[in-house]
Each structure stands twice: as structure tokens, then as C-alpha cells.
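EI: anyone free to look at a 162-residue chain?
SC: sure, send it
EI:
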Amino acid sequence: MKFIVDSMLGKLARWLRLAGQDVIYANDFPPTAESQDESLLLRAKEDYRILLTRDLELHRQAISRRLKSIYLEDDDVVNQLVEVSNHCEEDVRIDLTDSRCPVCNGELNQVGKEEVSGRVPENLLEEHEDFWICMDCGKIYWPGTHWETIAKIAEEYEEKLG
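SC: here you go
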């Protein structure tokens, strides 16, 4: 699925990217119209994206233009993920082996430690076999301690999703 997310939902944008979804975040591109809202609406239409917003007026504008839009009231990212999944035709599943870059939305390629040698600290090469490189921004990821946090949130999400 393809989403466009307003500036109030940056955390959700990162989580959807971790779930492998193609997500444009409002703060990642300069406005191309007279306002950021108008830019979001135009981009949603051009790219056939679902608008995710906490702005009720923006949601209403999207609906009046016959665009797909989901208005999210909850502040909690887990509840937001559940709500998005409930509104979409397919479930949003968090699978770290099929993620996108949470920073830039680029595709991630899994590589061995030989590919990142000299680009990450030596101790990481000794501790890990697998790494992921963003094909757009070049950021390198590995299964560090932050993966435990991600796994806990993913588990909470799966439990709430049912």
C-alpha cells in the first residue's frame, strides 16, 4: 500500500516504513502548492496514496475530492497502526526482514558483513552477520538492542490487531 502522512504523524510514518509500506511523510518534501495541506492532497491524488492525518479539516477536504483518507484521533502509534490496518484491505504487518528505510522510505537490501566492512565499527562486524543498507540514503541497519524495542511494540500491535 502507498500512504502519504501529514506532519503530525512522523512516528507513524516510520513504523509503517518498518512494516514495509511505501510512505511519504509531509516533512520530507517541500510544499509544491500554496500550502502544505494542498501539497499533500495533490501528491495523494497524483501517486494514488491513502492520506493519513490527524487534521479533521484536511481529512474532510480529501474526502470531498474523492481521495482515500483515514482520520486518526489516537496519539498512540500502536493504536494508530491498528486503526490504519482496520481501514485497509490488507493487514499492515511488521516484518523487519521486509522493511523500508524509516528515515527516507528507500528500499533496504540485506547484505553480509563484507559489504559494510569499513563503514560500521569493527565490534559490530564481530557481533552480527546480517546488515541492511538503504538503497537511497545509504544508511546501514543491523539487529541491535533497538530491535528488542521494535519487537515489543510489534508484539503489542499484533495483540491489539487480533
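EI: The chain has two domains: 2-93, 97-161.
SC: 👍
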